[in-house]
Amino acid sequence: MDTHAGEPTLKPYLRHHHDHHDLQPPTSVKASDALPLPLYLTNGLFFGLFFSVAYFLLHRWREKIRNSTPLHIITFPEIAGIVCLAASVIYLLGFFGIGVVQSFISRGSHDSWDVEEDSNVMIKKNGIGCTPAESLACTLAPVSRERVVAPTIQEPLILSGDDEEVIKGVVSGTIPSYSLESKLGDCKRAAAIRREALQRMTGRSMEGLPLEGFDYESILGQCCEMPVGFVQIPVGIAGPLLLNGTEYMVPMATTEGCLVASTNRGCKAIYASGGASSMLLKDAMTRAPVVRFGTAKRAAELKFFVEDPANFDALSVAFNRSSRFGRLQNIKCAVAGKNLYMRFSCSTGDAMGMNMVSKGVQNVLDYVQTDFPDMDIIGISGNFCSDKKPAAVNWIEGRGKSVVCEAIIKEEVVQKVLKTNIDTLVELNMLKNLAGSAMAGALGGFNAHASNIVSAVYIATGQDPAQNVESSHCITMMEAVNDGKDLHISVTMPSIEVGTVGGGTQLASQSACLNLLGVKGASKDSPGSNSRLLATIVAGSVLAGELSLMSAIAAGQLVRSHMKYNRSSKDVSKIAS
């Protein structure tokens, strides 16, 4: 079996780069070759020039001060002296970093350089690297297509030789896969080479995983390391969702059939009943470092210190200097023996804010350490935050945005759109979402499928999918109102963690989805308003999803709808592996 079949675009792409990067470097060039005189004479000349000109200028300026002559009035000899002084300084600085001169020479002669950042391995054509002890010999050896030597890192590095040699280097381990982007200076080419090397090492084809059509530069250093392609997830639209008097078309990225259709039906029911309303209850991202002392008494003393209102202003100043958007709100502590967990809460503007909070926390720890020098910082995060894990502290105290969203659904809409009745929905919600979840020992899971909607919206808008864990904490409530003629439904979500800047939000596809909702980027008029609005839209979408799914279960439609919309008609046995 040809393990490399099915890659029609990869090899033409690699061949295209063979033509551009298959260079023919000349023999080795030394930095001193750029100098008109021998190196020791040139050094002596510039040292002498520096000291003599410095003495001359100081002497002239001393005379001007004595004679009350303005210093800005300079003569031609003084101008020449200043120029010579600047030239000698530039040369002497360059002398201590002579590699700069070498890099200009190599650039002019079209040499290509490569640096192994971690192991200092000099790459050779035969696959054997120079050790650090051999690096000097490697550098003095003639530069050729058989190997590359190490320069100063001034710009993207280009590997000499064709892509086939680079692929072989990755396969053999002489070229680390993670360093391809920095060495090649071309993120797409790096992904193509890494992909081909991976196929050869595993003996398995990656046909079906797209390579073309993605901006690999946009993820470098912030979203994903060592890419070999990208996964396609379809994006559907649910809506319009009428929330607080405004209509929103909600993008949902999912591979689960019925999910978008069901949420869309919920949006229709809400719209026909006059819309939903939401309120932001709290906006505070958290981070909780853990510190340790020699005794429990000392841990308790620090707890009292940071929770004392008299010290809050000083702690806020230390915290807030980390960002113009991060503002400390409060600190709550928990003691476990000699260990202290301090849960910092702060606003973070339109960013989700984990990094912002972490920097502020580090500033406070540095400040506190002056008064508590025996404090041992164990970790910047002690899981009392709590991030990406189900935790009662998030369910009770909240994390990120805390939102409640409600709607009153008319009896006619319940019957005609949702195909059920109010009494059945209320009973089902009590027995399933409340009593059933309690029987299961649920933590924040008093709902039908909030995580379905949260995950789909998160993926579409570039949020951190792992934060679906706590962001999906939700309790769904239903009751009959208006003498039993209408249904009141609400969702309360205490820890929706979203942002409209940073991370995956800057990618083209995710940015487009944010733009569709009108929350792309940071709000210039009211910092933080875009991320808060996004949180309310998430809650409103969950409300629609809860309403529709509960209605389907009450009407006995769940299995039938999934059999109709969530089953593939393809014969998977005929799909090639």
Automatic annotation (TrEMBL):
CDD domains: HMG-CoA_reductase_classI. It comes from the Eukaryota. It is an enzyme of class 1 (oxidoreductase). Keywords: Endoplasmic reticulum, Glycoprotein, Isoprene biosynthesis, Membrane, Mitochondrion, NADP, Oxidoreductase, Plastid, Transmembrane, Transmembrane helix. InterPro entries: HMG_CoA_Rdtase, HMG_CoA_Rdtase_cat_sf, HMG_CoA_Rdtase_CS, HMG_CoA_Rdtase_eu_arc, HMG_CoA_Rdtase_N, HMG_CoA_Rdtase_NAD(P)-bd_sf, HMG_CoA_Rdtase_sub-bd_dom_sf. It catalyses: (R)-mevalonate + 2 NADP(+) + CoA = (3S)-3-hydroxy-3-methylglutaryl-CoA + 2 NADPH + 2 H(+). It is a multi-pass membrane protein. GO terms for cellular component: endoplasmic reticulum membrane; mitochondrial membrane; peroxisomal membrane; plastid membrane. Signal peptide: none annotated. It is found in: Endoplasmic reticulum membrane; Mitochondrion membrane; Plastid membrane. The chain crosses the membrane at residues 37-58, 79-101. GO terms for molecular function: hydroxymethylglutaryl-CoA reductase (NADPH) activity. Its main location: endoplasmic reticulum. It holds the Pfam family HMG-CoA_red. Its EC number is 1.1.1.34. Pathway: Metabolic intermediate biosynthesis; (R)-mevalonate biosynthesis; (R)-mevalonate from acetyl-CoA: step 3/3. One of its GO terms (biological process) is isoprenoid biosynthetic process. PROSITE patterns: HMG_COA_REDUCTASE_1 (PS00066), HMG_COA_REDUCTASE_2 (PS00318), HMG_COA_REDUCTASE_3 (PS01192), HMG_COA_REDUCTASE_4 (PS50065). Belongs to the HMG-CoA reductase family. This is 3-hydroxy-3-methylglutaryl coenzyme A reductase. It comes from Populus deltoides (Eastern poplar).
